[in-house]
Design brief:
By secondary structure, the protein is mainly α. The chain contains 14 helices and no strands.
C-alpha cells in the first residue's frame, strides 16, 4: 500500500506556473501605440515651432527660438483669428445649450411620435462636417436659390448673400444645427434621471414653473450642462470642415479660426514653423480649458456627493 501510494504520488504531475503579466504590462502595448501616434507628432510639432522652416526652401531651417510665437501673438490679424476662434466656439456653445435644453424639455413629455421625432432630431449630428457646409451653402444660404433668401423675398425683402454679409453668424448657425442634437441628448438624459417625486412635491407646495425650473431642474442639470460644455468646447475649438466647405475663412479673415489658419500656413504657404507654433497654441488652449472644466465637473460631483 505504501509503495503504491508513493508511486501514485510520484506519478502526479507537478502543476507548472504560467507566465503572469501585471495589469501595467497588459496596458503597455496600447500605451506605446498612443505614444507613437499622438505624442511623437506633438513633440515634432513643438520642435519645428522653434525654426524658420518653409517647404519651399527645405534646406534653410535656422533656429529662431520663440520668434514664431511672438509673430503669432503680436500680429493684429492673428489676434483677430484667435478672437474668431473664441467667438465661434462660445456663440455655438450658448446656442446649442439653449436650443438643446428646449428640445430636451419637449422630448421629455409623452406624445405620439416621440421616438420618430427624436430620431429625426439626432440625424443632423450624424452628417459629416463638409456635407453640412455644402448643404447649407448651396441649399439654404445661397442668395439666388437658397431657402432663407426665398423666405426673405416672400416678405417683400431683397435676397441676402448670407455668407458675404453675415459670415460668422452663418457659420455659427451651421455648426449649431450640427451640434444641437448632442446637447439635447445629454440634457434629456439629465432630465430623465430627475426623480418625479421632487417635481410633484414642488407642485404641491405651489411652486410656479419658473421656480420649479430654477430650484429643482437647474441644480439637477448642472453636471449634464458641464459635460456638454466640456465636450463641445473641445470639439468646437477644432472646427475646420464647415469653414473649409462654406467660406474658406473669408471674407478676408472674418471666419478664419485657429485650425483653418494652421491649414493655410502649412498647406497653402508651406510655412511649417509658423503652422507648428499655431498648433502648439491650439493644443495648450484646448488642454487648459479641458482641465478647468474637468476640475469644475469633479468639484460639483464631490459637493453633490457630500
Amino acid at each position: 500500500m505504501t509503495t503504491a501510494a508513493a508511486s501514485t504520488t510520484s506519478s502526479t504531475p507537478t502543476p507548472r506556473r504560467g507566465l503572469r503579466l501585471s495589469p501595467a504590462a497588459l496596458i503597455w502595448p496600447a500605451m506605446l501605440y498612443l505614444i507613437l501616434t499622438t505624442q511623437v507628432p506633438f513633440f515634432m510639432t513643438v520642435y519645428y515651432s522653434f525654426f524658420r522652416y518653409n517647404l519651399v526652401i527645405p534646406g534653410d531651417r535656422p533656429f529662431i527660438g520663440l520668434a514664431n510665437y511672438a509673430n503669432l501673438l503680436s500680429d493684429p490679424q492673428n489676434l483677430r483669428i484667435l478672437g474668431n476662434t473664441v467667438v465661434l466656439a462660445g456663440g455655438t456653445l450658448i446656442l446649442t445649450l439653449l436650443i438643446g435644453g428646449a428640445l430636451a424639455f419637449l422630448l421629455n413629455r409623452n406624445f405620439p411620435g416621440r421616438a420618430l421625432l427624436r430620431t429625426l432630431m439626432i440625424s443632423s449630428f450624424l452628417v459629416m462636417p463638409v456635407v453640412t457646409a455644402v448643404v447649407w451653402k448651396n441649399m439654404l444660404l445661397n442668395p439666388v436659390f437658397g431657402f432663407f433668401s426665398w423666405v426673405v423675398t416672400q416678405f417683400g425683402g431683397q435676397p441676402v448673400d448670407w455668407l458675404a454679409q453675415f459670415p460668422m453668424a452663418s457659420v455659427i448657425a451651421m455648426i449649431t444645427w450640427e451640434w444641437t442634437p448632442f446637447a439635447m441628448l445629454i440634457l434629456l438624459t439629465g432630465l430623465q434621471s430627475l426623480p418625479d417625486d421632487q417635481l410633484e412635491a414642488a407642485r404641491l407646495d405651489g411652486a410656479s414653473p419658473l421656480q420649479e425650473f430654477r430650484h429643482i431642474v437647474l441644480p439637477h442639470w448642472t453636471q449634464a450642462i458641464q459635460v456638454v460644455v466640456l465636450m463641445e468646447t473641445i470639439a468646437l475649438l477644432q472646427v475646420y470642415g464647415e469653414i473649409y466647405g462654406s467660406t474658406s475663412g473669408g471674407p478676408g479673415v472674418a471666419t478664419t479660426n485657429l485650425p483653418y489658419f494652421i491649414y493655410q500656413k502649412a498647406f497653402a504657404e508651406y510655412n511649417i514653423g509658423l503652422a507648428s507654433a499655431a498648433g502648439v497654441i491650439a493644443v495648450i488652449l484646448t488642454n487648459v480649458l479641458a482641465a478647468f472644466l474637468l476640475r469644475s465637473i469633479s468639484r460639483t460631483s464631490s459637493s453633490r456627493g457630500g
